[in-house]
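dumping this here before i forget
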Amino acid sequence: MIASGIGASGLGLEGSPEEQDARAVRQAWAQLAAPMPLQIEERLATRQFFDAALDLAHRVVGQERLHGFRLSFTSLGGPYAATLILAEPDGGGLGEVGAEHETSLVQALVAAIFRWAREQSAS
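structure:
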């Protein structure tokens, strides 16, 4: 199931697309898994935004539960979609949680991670 993701305006993001991606990843780390490791700071400094977001998914979801991910986009640009493929905790197969973003694959992944976190806190 795909839900609307966090938009740039939802995070108060302004600036270039790269600056928006960097801020989205920093905010996600701060809210979900602070403190941010030095390795992640280095990834952000070298513009490895997607890798930093994927590291966050591994940290908050857990290596055992995060079975994989699926990305989708068109050659014409957005919307971008990211889906986390999750092993069910009871061993009952695989589940998915996903989100979209109009302009950024990184922010679609960040939105999927936030959606997973919200679902966990609601259950």
